[in-house]
Amino acid sequence: MQDAIGDAEWVLHAATQDLPCLAEVGMRPHTLFDTELGSRLAGLPRVGLAAVIEHYVGITLAKEHSAADWSTRPLPEPWLTYAALDVEVLVEVRHRLREDLEQQDKLDWALQDFAALTSFTGPPQRTDPWRRTSGMHRIRDRHAIARVRELWQTRDAIAQENDTAPGRILPDAMIVELANTAPRTPEALQQAGSGLRTKSRSRSRVAGRGVSRYAARWLEAIARVAAMSEADLPPATVRNDAPPPQRTWSDRKPEAAARLSHVRGRLTEFSEQRHVPLENLITPDTLRRVLWTPPNPLSDNAIRERLTALGARSWQVELVTPYILEAPTEVPPEGPATDE
Fold first, then answer.
1. CA 7/CA 231 separation, integer angstroms
2. Residues near 95 by Cβ (< 8 Å), separated by ≥ 6?
3. What UniProt keywords apply to this chain's record, in alphabetical order (predicted)?
4. Which domains can be identified in the chain, with CATH numbers?
């Protein structure tokens, strides 16, 4: 398939949703045009596929199957027709969007961003992804943390075996419930499952079915933790190199908070003037990393090198570097006190 496509430009909408799956079967674009990302840079107020098609070619898509369960196999014929119609006019959208970007003097920005996407194979792999289980804040005991890990990994294996989303096997809320209650028998497991109440009835049904259908595997996962020594239990927390939550900056490093306030203010002005979402000018994580621990000594070249190393495109580096250089290096003094 890759040989047949050759160097042809791929036209995709929201390419990051498709590229990881295509990369798994050996398909990678040589050049790419992402109509969703391009629409963001062009300043469209809505960038969903239907809205973009309507904006550029005046066609309103029927969305009767948009809420369907697309994990169904085989896909019904009407759904396939619907999916084909969704992209039938995408090349025409691409041409008109490119013209729009060129008229706004944003085409080079878009082409740089599209080029970066050609090597995208998915978000960075997180250390211990199971720690992102929703409701993890309710877990404190290391044995319970280990049960979350074992249950999460078991769920992931079952999902891969069934080629379905992990949440369709067992919701996160049920993993947390089982980790906290640690049932040891089928009866206790079922009791824990029936005792969970979620806001969604459908989610409750999924939880009940998942507990019953794979009961033996959940109990095995819980039993593995019971047999672990203290040394085998995961730590309660894991250090990472990310800056602390922004809400703590004023107390922990007020000069960094002042830098962030200044740069974000300047970027917000630019965002409003050029009609580009703030997060497309520079990723929030990149900006926070540079402003929390800026290069020392601070210089134009050092900032550019740091931004580039973090994945910023050259147009973003050109835009953001001057704002960082002009940001305050110390906490601005408070104004003089006034008498009431």
1. 52
2. none
3. Exonuclease, Hydrolase, Nuclease
4. 2-117 (3.30.420.10), 129-232 (1.10.150.80), 246-326 (1.10.150.80)
